[in-house]
Amino acid sequence: MTVWCNGNFVDTLTLDPAERGLMLGDGIFETIAVRNGKPIWLQQHLSRMEEAARAIGLPLQDAEIRKGIAAVLSKSNHISEVLRVTLTRGPTGRGLALNGDKPTLIAALNPFDRATLSQSVQLITASISRHAASPASRFKTLSYIDAVLAAREVADRADDALMLNEHGRVACSTVANIFLLKEQSLITPSSGEAILPGITRAKLNGGARELGLELQLRPVEYEELHAAEAVFLTTSLRLATPVSSIDGKSSGTRDISFINAFFERNLT
Amino acid sequence: MTVWCNGNFVDTLTLDPAERGLMLGDGIFETIAVRNGKPIWLQQHLSRMEEAARAIGLPLQDAEIRKGIAAVLSKSNHISEVLRVTLTRGPTGRGLALNGDKPTLIAALNPFDRATLSQSVQLITASISRHAASPASRFKTLSYIDAVLAAREVADRADDALMLNEHGRVACSTVANIFLLKEQSLITPSSGEAILPGITRAKLNGGARELGLELQLRPVEYEELHAAEAVFLTTSLRLATPVSSIDGKSSGTRDISFINAFFERNLT
Fold it and tell me: Where are the alpha helices (DSSP H) in chain A?
C-alpha cells in the first residue's frame, strides 16, 4: 500500500486524538479504479467529492486532492489498482457543529486483483434499510456502519446484501448500484430512493441510448427484481456484475456482457 | 488531554492506514462524566458498550477497556472531566464484512468546564431524521455524521437540533434524550422510536416512581412538545437541561431542578 497524508508519504497515519474522521465519521471518500497507472473517470469522482464536501460543509481541497492523487500514482507499479481518497473535517474541540481548520486528506493506492472478481453474485436482502432523509445514504461519507452491518448480516449466505429503502423499495447493495434489464428497458432506482449516485451508474445512464435501451430512473419495487431478464450491480472497480440470485431465487440470465463492453469502450 | 491507545499513553494516534474506525466509521464509543477523578455511572456505560459491541460483532474487550480507563483516570487532575472510550474494528483488508483481529481501543480524558453549561437550550427541528431500521440510530457508533449535519444545520439559530424519526415523531436531540413533564406524567420516546438508549435517561426512568411521576415510554408526537409543562434534555455530562424554545415557540416553564437534584443524589 502506498499512502500519502497531508503532503507526505507515510507508513502509518499520525492523527490528532480529536480527529473527527475517526471520532464522528465526519468526512467523505472516493474509491477510484486505476489501470496501468491511470485513474478511471477521475474528473467524475472529483466532482462528486466536491459536491459532497459542499453539502457537508468541508472546505474544498481540489488542488490538494489532485496533488495527493498524483503523488501516490507516481508509485503505481501494478496493472490494476484501487485508489482511495479520504477527506475529513480534521480535529476540533468538543461540539458536533464545530468547523475544523485542519482537514485531513489521505490518498492510498492498493493493488486490486481483477482476476479474483466473481463472475456473478448472490444477494440476500438485509434487515437494515437506507433512508433518503439520511445524508449518510446519499453521500459517500465515512459513516458507513449501516452498510458494514448489512454486509455482515448476510456474509455467511451471500456475496453482498440487497438494501431496501424506507418504503421497502429497492435501493442498492452495500457497495454497488443496482440495475434491471427487461426487454429494451434499463431500469435503476432514481436519486430520491436513498441511493448513492454512483459514477458507474451515471456513465451507464448516459450510454443507454447508444446501447438501444430506454432508461427508466424511478422507484423500483422488490418484486420487479424477480421479473427482470437480468439484474446487475455497478461499481467503479467491478463495473457491471450479474446477480445470479436474490434471497435464494434465481435471477434472470440475460447476458450483460454488452454492458461491460460499453464500459470498456468508455474508460476515459 | 490525556490519551491512552492500545496499552500506551500517547500524544497522537498512530493508526494503520486500513483502520476501519476512520475509513468506515466501524466502531463504537461512550462518553462518561468524571467528577473528582471518579467516573459517573461507569458500570452502566460499560454494559451499554458491551451490548453495542455484541450487536455489531466487535470482540468484547472489557478487561482492556477497564485498563485504559484506569490508566487515564490515574492522570486526573481536574474537578470535572469527560472520559471518552472508543473501540473500533481496527484494520482489515478490503471488504465490508471482514472481521479484524486487532481492534483499536482509545481512552481519552479531557477537562470539562461545568460552569459553561447553559442554563437552558433553544432547539430547532432538523430536516435530517433518524430511522429505527438504522443501527447507527440505536447504538453509539462512530458513524455519527447525520447528527453532525443536523447540528450544523441549526447551529446559527439554536443550541441544538431536535431530531424526528421516520414517522415524524419526536426522537431526541443530536446528543441528548428528550423528556416531557405534564402534570404527574414523565414522558419520553420509547426504544423503538430511533433513539439512543441513554444512560441518564435510564437512570431517570428508574427513578420516576421515587419522584412521584408516572413514567410513559411511548411514541411522542411533535405537537405534544408545545403542550408540555416542561421539556428537557438528558445527557451523561449535562444531566437535565431545560428546553426554553422549540422552533421559535417558547416551551413550558415548569421548574425541573428536582430532576437534577435526583441525579445528584444518584451519581453512584
Answer: 20-24, 42-56, 62-73, 135-138, 145-154, 199-207, 222-227, 257-265
Q: Which pairs from B78-81 meet CB under 8 Å and 24+ separation?
A: B78/B111, B78/B112, B79/B35, B79/B36, B80/B33, B80/B34, B80/B35, B80/B111, B80/B112, B80/B113, B80/B114, B81/B33, B81/B34, B81/B35, B81/B109, B81/B110, B81/B111, B81/B112
CB burial class (10 A; 0-12, 13-18, 19+) of residue A119?
exposed
A13/B10 touch (CB, cutoff 8 Å), yes or no? no
- A242: confidence class by pLDDT, cuts 50, 70, 90: very high
Distances (CA, A) of A218 to A169, A190, A194, A231: 11, 5, 12, 16
Could you give the CA distance from residue B120 to residue A43 in angstroms, rounded to a whole number?
Answer: 48
Whether A118 shows a pLDDT value over 80: the answer reads no
Which chain A residues contact residue B112 at CB under 8 A?
A: 94
Residue A5: strand pairing partners? A8, A106
Whether B13 and A18 lie within 8 Å, measured CB to CB: no
Averaged pLDDT, B102-131: 92
Q: What is the pLDDT of residues B40-65, one digit of tens each?
A: 999 999 999 999 999 999 988 899 99
Q: What is the CB neighbour count within 10 angstroms for residue A141?
A: 28
Nearest chain B residue to A2 by CA: give it: B17
Reported ipTM: the value is: 0.96
| pTM score over 0.90 | yes
Answer yes or no: do A106 and B17 touch at CB < 8 A: yes
Minimum CA–CA partner of B140 in chain A: A24
Return the pLDDT at A85. 98
Q: Which residues of B touch A14 (CB under 8 A)?
A: 12-15
Per-residue pLDDT of A40-71, as tens digits, reads: 999 999 999 999 999 999 988 899 999 999 99
